[in-house]
Specification:
six-stranded mixed β-sheet, three-stranded antiparallel β-sheet, 3 domains, alpha/beta
Length: 590
């Protein structure tokens, strides 16, 4: 039902007294200062700011759902989240289904502040987050920084909101303290008694308009939903926020978990776990979606799909009761893949590690680190299976993901294999068109992967498992890239333009790449490989250690390394053939 609303000031009072609240299906506040300034500029220019969608929650149902307040004083580090209102009993509420960002922007601009990190300052620096308030330049004809804005709204630190002959900065929250329109002119004359008539008229006109928009006009128009059926409300929310397309359900369904967990705060637990997982070793990029899907998978809920029926009271009670074990299994899993050298940049598909987490969960491993609970054979099998799945260019972890994960969960649970059920998983994937067998064309592609492809690290670490990837490592050009510039190849090597282009391509392909300890790579710099090896492998007496050099070359399939760049092409072809054979034998093993 469409209803005309009250003024912005009246709405902010309702927000202040928690009569307007946010259901947990709403995401966090994400607008930036320019977006807030644009909203206020739209108000001033009589542009429509959109209709709101409110959900009338009856007092008998207010304690059945989880609600949050609106952000007022936003601090990027210390206060970025909506405040938890706890359990609200016997109180009629208006829950905002559509319009949170706009209402929060009004709340911050008119009642609060923003504190965003300054560039080039550390997060630990308390001065990196200056408190800023929304100001309006009463004399500006237009905002010269944003040409489409007629009015110049800007977040400023009070020390920088300094008036001049061409600027009068009015702190926007102060407009709420002006009750009578006539007080506007009084404010200008008291604050700026020497202002000339033309500027006073301009300032008065701008401030009067702001006062009118905030305190007099009924600009909050809304539709009201009265149904108390959570599924209907969720469907309305999805339609309003996605135009009928499928939304990511993580924030929506998280709200149901929040409402139904009795002991733990689901939102806090999931946010905390996401942060902890992302901070392991060199860092990852896991999301709430990943953790929620992991919860569904590890708790053996019927399917891992983000469907409302999977988040019923029975399932959520089960998820809460198992949360500690689920949390530990996920932590062990991420520690394990970090030991494999993976991080946010090289883990091509987060969902690929969920079967591993389910295996660890089923085994009941509880040690504080994965290396203490998984034996060497398990780790080897897990790495082999995971990396092969990530090397597939066709995308194992794309379409049909929920069905695949559910099937892999069943395969792990029913497997009779000792250790990690590599064969059961491989067969299950093959039956669903997700074969881990690599055809000749795929082998050819892998053997010539280009520098920068995420699969380069995966493949090199499979080929050379003796490299300790727990330390900082680099993907190194065996023959330094700096040697392949146009002048050096043409003048020093006598190559023609076509040959130069070809050599530059080969320089960046897998046969000229190796995994190297970070410090070693820094020391190697632009030295030719044989010179570097001769400098590195010396006996205590300073003599050349030929045996050590041969061992290194054998380990890394380098063959006979030429002394000079002119023989690079022969080196490339020899290593390409060696890698192609090794890749075939390694990743197609049954």
């Amino acid at each position: 039902m469409y209803k005309p609303g009250g003024t912005i000031r009246e709405t902010l009072k309702d927000i202040q007294h928690n009569r307007y609240v946010l259901p947990a299906i709403q995401r966090e506040f994400v607008w930036q200062p320019p977006q807030i300034a644009q909203l206020f500029d739209s108000l001033m220019q009589d542009y429509p700011i959109g209709t709101f969608l409110f959900w009338n929650v009856e007092s008998t149902n207010s304690d059945k759902f989880k609600f949050y307040g609106f952000v007022r004083d936003y601090h990027q580090k210390n206060n970025p989240h909506c405040p938890d209102l706890g359990v609200i009993t016997n109180q009629n509420l208006i829950a905002v289904l559509d319009g949170q960002q706009r209402l929060t922007a009004l709340n911050i601009g008119l009642r609060g502040s923003m504190a965003l990190k300054l560039p080039r300052k550390y997060w630990s620096n308390p001065d990196a987050f200056p408190e800023q308030f929304l100001y309006l330049d009463l004399l500006a004809e237009s905002d010269f920084e944003h040409e489409e804005f007629r009015y110049r709204f800007k977040f400023l630190n009070p020390q920088k909101a300094v008036d001049s002959d061409t600027e009068i900065w009015f702190k926007v929250p102060d407009i709420l303290a002006i009750d009578d329109p006539y007080e506007v002119f009084s404010w200008i004359t008291e604050k700026h008694p020497g202002l000339d008539a033309e500027k006073a008229k301009k300032a008065n006109k701008t401030l009067s308009l702001l006062h009118k928009k905030i305190t007099e006009q009924g600009l909050i128009n809304y539709y009201e939903e009265k149904s108390q059926d959570i599924e209907k409300v969720l469907n309305i929310f999805i339609r309003m926020n996605s135009g009928g397309t499928v939304l990511s359900y993580s924030d929506l369904l998280l709200s149901i978990a929040v409402a139904q967990w009795s002991e733990l705060d689901a939102r806090q637990e999931i946010h905390k776990l996401v942060d902890e997982l992302n901070n392991i070793r060199n860092g990852f990029n896991f999301s709430k979606d990943f953790v929620l899907k992991a919860g569904l998978m590890l708790a053996d809920i019927s399917s891992v799909g983000f469907k409302v029926k999977n988040f019923n009271h029975e399932n959520m009670a089960k998820l809460e009761s198992l949360w500690s074990k689920i949390r530990q299994s996920l932590t062990l899993t991420v520690q394990l893949v970090a030991d494999f050298g993976l991080n946010g940049s090289t883990l091509r598909a987060d969902s690929s590690i969920l079967p591993i987490a389910y295996y660890i969960y089923q085994k009941g491993y509880t040690d504080h680190h994965s290396k203490h609970c998984l034996n060497a054979e398990e780790r080897k099998q897990i790495k082999n299976w995971l990396f092969r799945s990530l090397l597939k260019s066709s995308g194992i972890w794309g379409s049909g993901l929920d069905t695949l994960l559910t099937a892999l969960r069943t395969a792990i649970k029913d497997s009779q294999e000792n250790g990690f059920p590599l064969e059961s998983l491989t067969q299950t994937m093959r039956q669903r068109g997700k074969s881990l067998t690599f055809e000749d064309e795929e082998i050819e592609e892998l053997a010539t992967l280009k520098y920068g492809d995420k699969r380069v690290f995966l493949l090199l670490s499979l080929l050379y498992p003796f490299v300790d990837l727990r330390n900082q490592f680099h993907i190194d050009h065996i023959f330094p890239k700096s040697k392949f510039t146009l002048p050096k190849l043409k003048n020093n090597q006598g190559l023609n333009d076509e040959q130069v282009e070809q050599w530059q391509i080969l320089c960046n392909q897998l046969p000229n790449l190796q995994l190297l300890d970070g410090q070693e790579n820094i020391e190697k710099q632009a030295i030719l490989p044989m010179t570097w090896l001769e400098n590195k492998h010396r006996t205590e007496e300073g003599d050349l250690d030929v045996t050590s050099i041969k061992h290194y070359c054998s380990q890394h399939d380098l063959g006979t390394i030429p002394v000079e760049l002119k023989d690079f092409r022969q080196f490339y072809e020899a290593r390409y053939q060696a890698l192609k054979t090794k890749i075939t034998n390694l990743i197609n093993v049954t």
